[in-house]
């Protein structure tokens, strides 16, 4: 039985298959068992509506979780930024591996940087968070841009630039890295310009909670892929998102990073931003504290910053809040 293949549930997109394949290789190494990918179509994959319209929260996740609960797959891999902040009791977040580059990037025509785009440049993104921060930056730096709502996979989005329909599109560095297309990036956006989505660049490996010996053994094996620093960071970011009562498609950016002095990790800084999509109103704050040693400590850091942001009017900038 020990050499029976483990079934990994994954979305069908090229990016999802690439990142699930990388996790499959790592799981094979720690378990000594082959891993087969089981492709699952999610609502977010088939709907052509804007993510903000269909709710965003869980649209890429629910079908995978249902398959896991039903026992059709043994574990699942998600982009962590797609995971709702509420967690089903039947499932465990077994591992959050080392995070990829969390930054957003620009793929623009004529190899242009963001600040070199012509007046009136049309920039495509499906993310209210990116729209809010790009428009805010443009307002304060005298740039004239138009953000255009788009959907589609990486090929579709970059295709809009090659076809001349858009001057640039915004994508996640991590996704382009994982599918080997990072060389198409024309500009890396500093996190001081655009804070990423909570959990961006990180993966979530989810399995059933250990009600059986097999489930418990798999959860323990998957746990070997967990990176405690990444987990602490994304826990703080997602706690901020949850405390703002905002869904995955809300215009919320967050990033926790470690402040390192030589070999010593000194502190963790958590930054958060909420803004209207036109960039006219923004609440952006940060807090710095000791590196959380527990899940509860990381969550407390996120809640603390969210409380300060709400006190400065963050709730009114998010549109309809997720409950």
Beta-strand portion reads 15-25%
Task: Going across the biggest sheet, name each strand in turn.
Answer: 2-1-3-10-4
Unreliably modeled segments: 50-56
Indicate the percent of residues in helices: 25-40%
| Beta strand count | 13
Instruction: Average the pLDDT over all residues and give the rounded result.
Output: 89
Tally of helical segments: 10
Largest sheet: 5 strands, mixed
Return the structural class.
Answer: alpha/beta
Helix and strand element order: EHEHHHEEEEHEHEHEEHHEEEH
Q: Categorize the overall geometry.
A: globular
* Cα end-to-end separation: 43 Å
Radius of gyration: 20 Å
Q: What tags apply to this protein structure?
A:
323 residues, 5-stranded mixed β-sheet, 13 strands, 10 helices
Describe the structure.
The chain has 323 residues and is of the alpha/beta class. It is 33% helix and 24% strand. It has helices at 14-31, 43-46, 51-54, 62-69, 128-141, 154-162, 173-178, 213-222, 228-243, 295-311; strands at residues 6-10, 35-39, 75-79, 91-95, 104-108, 121-125, 145-149, 168-172, 187-188, 203-208, 252-261, 264-275, 282-289. Strand 6 (121-125), helix 5 and strand 7 form a beta-alpha-beta unit.
């Amino acid at each position: 039985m020990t050499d029976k293949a483990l079934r990994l549930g994954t979305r069908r997109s090229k990016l999802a298959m690439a990142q699930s394949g990388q996790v499959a290789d790592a799981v094979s190494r720690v378990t000594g068992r082959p891993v087969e990918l089981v492709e699952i179509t999610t609502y977010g994959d088939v709907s052509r509506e804007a993510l903000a319209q269909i709710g965003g929260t869980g649209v890429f996740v629910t079908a995978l979780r249902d398959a896991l609960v039903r026992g059709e797959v043994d574990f699942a891999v998600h982009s962590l930024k797609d995971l709702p902040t509420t967690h089903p009791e039947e499932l465990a977040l077994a591992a959050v591996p080392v995070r990829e580059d969390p930054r957003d990037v620009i793929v623009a025509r004529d190899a242009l940087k963001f600040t070199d785009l012509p007046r009136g440049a049309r920039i495509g993104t499906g993310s209210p968070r990116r729209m809010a921060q790009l428009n805010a930056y443009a307002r304060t730096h005298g740039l004239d841009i138009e953000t255009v709502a788009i959907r589609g996979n990486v090929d579709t989005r970059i295709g809009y630039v090659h076809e001349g329909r858009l001057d640039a599109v915004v994508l996640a560095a991590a996704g382009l890295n994982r599918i080997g297309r990072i060389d198409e990036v024309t500009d890396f956006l500093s996190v001081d310009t655009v804070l990423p989505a909570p959990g961006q660049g990180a993966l979530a490996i989810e399995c059933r909670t250990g009600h059986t010996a097999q489930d418990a053994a798999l959860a323990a094996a998957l746990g070997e892929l967990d990176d405690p620093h990444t987990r602490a960071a994304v826990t703080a970011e997602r706690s901020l998102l949850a405390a703002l009562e905002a869904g995955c498609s809300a215009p919320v950016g967050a990033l926790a990073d470690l402040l390192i002095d030589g070999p010593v990790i000194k502190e963790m800084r958590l930054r958060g931003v909420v803004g209207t999509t036109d960039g006219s109103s923004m609440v952006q704050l940060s807090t710095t504290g000791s590196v959380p040693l527990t899940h509860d400590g990381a969550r407390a850091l996120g809640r603390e910053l969210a409380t300060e942001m709400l006190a400065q009017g963050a709730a009114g900038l998010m549109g309809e809040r997720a409950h």
